[in-house]
Amino acid sequence: MKMVTAIIKPFKLDEVREALSNIGVQGITVTEVKGFGRQKGHTELYRGAEYVVDFLPKVKLEAAIKADLLDLVLEAIEKSAGTGKIGDGKIFVHELEQVIRIRTGESGPEAL
Amino acid sequence: MKKPFLICVLLAALCGLSATASAEDAVAVAETVAAAAPVPDKGDTTWMMLSTLLVILMIVPGLSLFYGGLVRAKNMLSVLSQVFAIFALVSVLWVIYGYTLAFGDGGSMNWMIGDLSKLFLAGVTPDSTAATFTDGVVIPELTFVAFQLTFAAITTALIVGGFAERIKFGALLVFSALWFTFSYLPIAHMVWATGGFLFEKGALDFAGGTVVHINAGIAALVGAIVIGKRIGYGKEPMAPHNLPMTMIGASLLWVGWFGFNAGSNLEATGGAALALLNTIVATGAAALAWMFAEWKLHGKPSMLGIASGAVAGLVAVTPAAGLVGPMGAIILGALAGVVCLWAVSGLKKSMGYDDSLDVFGIHAVGGIIGAIGTGIFVSPTLGGVGVAGYSMGGQVVTQAVGVLVTVAWSGVVSFVLFKLIDVTIGLRVSEEAEREGLDTATHGERAYNL
Lengths: 112, 450
Description:
The complex is a heterodimer.
Chain A: E1 2-8, H1 13-22, E2 29-35, E3 42-46, E4 49-53, E5 56-65, H2 70-81, E6 89-95
Antiparallel strand pairs in A: 1-5, 1-6, 2-5, 3-4
Helix pairs in contact in A: 1-2
Chain B: H1 2-33, H2 42-70, H3 76-103, E1 129-131, E2 138-140, H4 141-158, H5 169-192, H6 197-201, H7 209-227, H8 243-263, H9 270-298, H10 303-317, H11 326-351, H12 359-377, H13 392-424, H14 431-436, H15 438-443
Helix pairs in contact in B: 2-3, 2-4, 2-8, 3-4, 3-5, 4-5, 4-7, 5-7, 5-13, 7-12, 7-13, 8-9, 8-10, 9-10, 9-11, 10-11, 10-12, 11-12, 12-13
C-alpha cells in the first residue's frame, strides 16, 4: 500500500478529484495549506504599506491506495493538476504500513 | 323675499363691524410683531432631525466598520467597542455640561469657552429655539443640542484610529472624557459660538474642518507618538483583516456625511443643497484622484485607495461645503486625494510614527487642505458664495490662524492628557495582551467563531 500526498493549485482540486475517482481511488483527504516553493510570493500594498506574501495558498490532498494503482494515480494527478506554469505543486509517495477501517475492524488492502 | 334682504343687511353690518375690528387688529399685530418670537419651520426642524440621525449613522455603524475592517481580526471587537462606547459616553456628557460650555456665553472667558447656565440642559425646553444663519429663522433648541451632540461624539471617536490595537480600554474612556472637555468644547466654542475667538475673527468652518477633523487628527497623531508603535510594526504584516467591512463603513460615512455637511446649514434651503452637492462631487473627485495617483505610483488601483480617497475628500469639503461652488469643491477634493495619499505613505514612512488607521494623514491633513482651501474657493470669482468684506489673502491668513490655533490647542491638550494618563493608570495594554489581541484579552470575546 502507498500513501500519495500531492500539493496542488487550489483551483485544480475538482479536476484532480474527478481523475482519481475515474481510476478507482475510493477516497481522498483534502487540506487547505500555505507554503512556498520555487514560485515566488507576491506583494500587497495597503495605503503604501507593503507586505510581501511569501506563503501561497495551496491544497494538499492525501490518498491511501493499493500499490498496483500507484502509476495510474501519479499519472492522473500529473495530468489533471498540471498547467505547465511554475507553482503546479509536487507529489510525494510514502510506504503505508497499515490501514484499519474503524467501523468494521478490517485491515490491510481490504480496508482501502 | 324678506329673508335675502335681511341677510344682506346683516352681512353689511358684519362687514362694517369686521372692517373696524380688523383695522384695530392690524394695529395690535403691528405692535406685537416686533416682540413676537420666531416660530421654527417644520421643514427646517425635520431636516435637522434627519441630519442628526445621518451623523449617528456615520459614527456607530460607519466609523466603526471603516476602522474595524482595517485592523487585524484579533482586534476587530476592540475597535467596534471603542467607537460605540465613546459615542455613548460623549452623548451623556454633552447634555450634562458639554452643550452649555460649547454654546453658552462665557462672559469674560467667552473668547474661549461658554458658561454653565444650561448645565443639565437647564432651561432648554421643546419651546426654546436656537438661531440659524438667517435672521428671524430658528430651529428648536433641542434639535440643535442633538445635532451638535453627534459632532462632539464623532470627533472624539475618530481619535481611536491613531492608537488602535494597543490602547487600554479604561485609559481610552478616561482620555475621551477629558479630551472632549478640554479640547473639543473650547475649540467648538471658539469656532462656532458667538463671541468665540475664531468666530469673531471671521474664520470660516462650515461643518467642522478645524473643530472636528484637525482637532481629532492632531490628537490621534500625538496619541500614536506617546503610546508608541505596535509590536512588530514595520516587520510583521499588519494587513487589514476585512476590506469589505471598510468599504461598507466608508459608504455609510459618505451617506451620513450629508447630514454632517448639508445639516450644518441648519435650514432646509438652497444653501443645504449646495453643501449636499459639494459633498458628492468633492468626494468623487478625491476618490478618483487617490485611485489614479496610487495606480501611477504603486502600480495598482486599490479598493482601499478609492475608499480612503473618498474619506479624504469628505474631510476636505467639510469646512467648505456650503461656502464654495461645486467646481471649487472638485478641486479641493482632488487635491486632498493626492496629498492625503502622500501623507499616509511617504510622510508617514519618513516620520516613522505608527498612526494605525491614518487619522492624522487623512483627517488632519485633509482638514488643513479644506480649511485653507475654503479661504480661497469661497471667493465669488471662483464660484464661491463670498463673505462680507472678502479679500483672498486676508481670508487665507484668517483660515491659517484657525488651523494653527486648533493644531496647537489640540496638540498641547492631547499631549498633557496622554502623559497624565500614562503615568497614572497606564495607556498601553501588556505585551502579552497585545500579541493575543484586544478582543480576547480586553473584552473576553472573539469577532469570528468560524
